[in-house]
Amino acid sequence: MKRKDFIRKSILATSAIAAAKLVKGEVKKDKITKQVGFNHLPIMETKTSTTVLHKANTRGHANHGWLNSYHSFSFANYYNPDRMNFGVLRVLNDDQVSSGMGFGEHPHDNMEIISIPLEGALEHKDSMGNNGVIKSGDIQVMSAGTGIRHSEFNQSKEFDVRFLQIWLMPNQKNVGPRYDQIEIGELKKENELYQILSPNKEDQGVWIHQNAWFYKGEFNKEVMVNHKINNANNGFYVFVIEGQVTINNQLLEKRDGYGLWDTTSLEIKAKKGTNILLMEVPMK
Question: Quick one: what percent of the chain has pLDDT higher than 90?
Fold first, then answer.
C-alpha cells in the first residue's frame, strides 16, 4: 500500500476512535461523535526547505467536556492537507480526559501506538487479554499489526488525566499484535536527553516496528545539549511539553512542535523548568 493510501486509511480509522466514552465501565455512544476532532483552522505554520514549525495555537482542537484534545496532525474531523504527517509520524494528540471517562473499545491495525501519560493514570484493556494501568512516568507501546481492539479510560474518579497519544506508521505490516509498558523514571537523567524508545528489543526503553528513537529531556537548570542523529535518513520532531527551548536557533514554547530534516545534529538550549519529547523518525 502506498504512503498516501495508508494515510487516507488512517484518517478514516481515527474517525471511530472517540465514537464511544466509558462511564463506570459501560460503553456509551458519544452524542457528538460526528464532531470529534472537528476544526477548520487556517493554515498557520512556518516552513522552510528543511524545517516546519507548528505553534501550539495552530493545532486542531476538539473539546467535548469529557475529552479535550489538541491535534498536531490531521485527526478525525480535523483535516489540514499541510498537516498529514511528519515522515512516519502520523498522529500526535495532546489529550485530557475527565475523571471516570475514556475511550470505548475500538480497533486498530498496522500502526505503532505510543501513549505517554503526563498527569494521572489510564487503565488499558485489550483483546489480547492485557489489563493494566499506565501513569505519569510510564510509557506504553502497542503494535496493532494484524488487528487489536482496546479501551482506555481515566482510572481516577476525581482527577483528569493528561497524556500524549502518538501513532507511527510501521516498517512491517501484518505482524502479530503486541503490548508493552515500562516505567521510565529509572531511565531518567537530569538535565540530559535519555532514550525511552528504539527499534531494538535489547536497547533502553520500549521497542517498536520502525527505525525510530524517542528521547525525553527534563531540565531543572539552563542547559545546552548537542544531540546526533541515529540514521541519516531520519528527521527530528521536537514537542515541548513544558517550558522554553531553542533548537538550532529556533525558539520554542509550551506545546510547540518543530520538525527538522536533512540535518545530522541538534543544538538544544533549554531554559530551567523545560520538559521536551524528541522524536527521531524516518522521513520516507
Answer: 77
